[in-house]
Amino acid sequence: MMRYRKEKWQSFLLVLPSILAIAVFVYGFIAWTMRVSTSAWKGLLPDYTWVGLKNYIDLFSDQRFMVDIRNTLIFTVVFMVGCLVVGFFNAYLLDQGLRGENFFRSLFLFPMAISYIVTGVVWRWLMNPALGSRLSGLNLLFDKLGLDFLINKWHTTPGWGIAFIAIPAIWQMSGYTMALYLAGLRAIPDELREAARVDGASEIQIYRHIIFPLLRPVTLSAMVILGHMSLKVFDLILAVAGKQLSLDVPAIYMWQTTFDGYFFGRGGAISILLLLSVAVLIIPYLIYTLKSEPEI
């Protein structure tokens, strides 16, 4: 009994530094940001005058913040759908037992190892919106191939430019969803497919009634991960297009408000709203995962 207690305290002391670091640098800073978001702090000197929810209310009457929400929704939908479709298609191809699977698997996963800044710099050239005699990147390739109808202004397209920003993100993260789906496909017993074929089911029916339902947990996990990444997108947009109001998102607005405009109260409010939006995705997923785990 004494030995058990000793090992228990030794284990606790081992993780204590991590607990303290998380308590201070994560939850402590979250609490401090919440306090700043309810203050009138504007300028270099701290001002903790209590204003309640004024900064939050002002945000939802701010036209720029409404544009940010719209852009975030468009980016999230295009990004998630694109990654899921491309990732599953690549996983399906690799699951067919093609030669060179290891090479192609590494090829699809490689973009994930690159930072968004590097991806943005490369795709900024590929999606050069210049037209006429200044064609370059993908527009020049389309011109040479005779696909003039595909030439467009990319991220400078009025209204829907943010949707094109999702293309580099899909290129970078579709390999991750491919890995998730490939693991899910390999975990499905071949006996289920063979039994369905014996009963006369076509390949489409097998995927519709067997494969897709069994891949729902994988899809849910991928959607949660991709969704919270899309809500925090920041560096990719700046690398591709710079600071443009038409491509503005809450993370960029928060940065400019806080560190360019020194309006720390409003910047804190935007930060808390971003945290809550991520929590809306993460917390239900964690609850679902904990309930789904079998009891030992």
Annotate the secondary structure layout:
Layout: H1 2-37, H2 54-59, H3 63-94, H4 101-109, H5 116-126, H6 137-144, H7 161-187, H8 190-198, H9 203-214, H10 216-231, H11 235-241, H12 250-260, H13 264-292
Helix pairs in contact: 1-13, 3-7, 3-10, 4-7, 5-11, 7-10, 10-13, 12-13
At CATH's second level, what is the architecture? Orthogonal Bundle
Strand fraction equals: under 5%
> How many separate helices?
13
Structural class: mainly alpha
CATH class: Mainly Alpha
Going by CATH, the homologous superfamily would be MetI-like
Portion of residues within helices:
over 70%
Cα(first) to Cα(last) distance is 24 Å
Observed structural traits:
single chain, 296 residues, mainly alpha, MetI-like fold, 13 helices, 72% helix
Structure summarized in a few sentences:
The chain has 296 residues and is mostly helical. It is built from 13 helices and no strands.
Structure, described:
- The two termini are 24 Å apart.
- This protein has one domain: MetI-like fold.
- The longest helix has 36 residues, at 2-37.
- The mean pLDDT is 89.
- Helices cover 72% and strands 0% of the residues.
- Helix 7 runs antiparallel to helix 10 (216-231).
- The chain contains 13 helices and no strands.
- The chain is flat, with a radius of gyration of 24 Å.
- The protein has 296 residues and is mainly α.
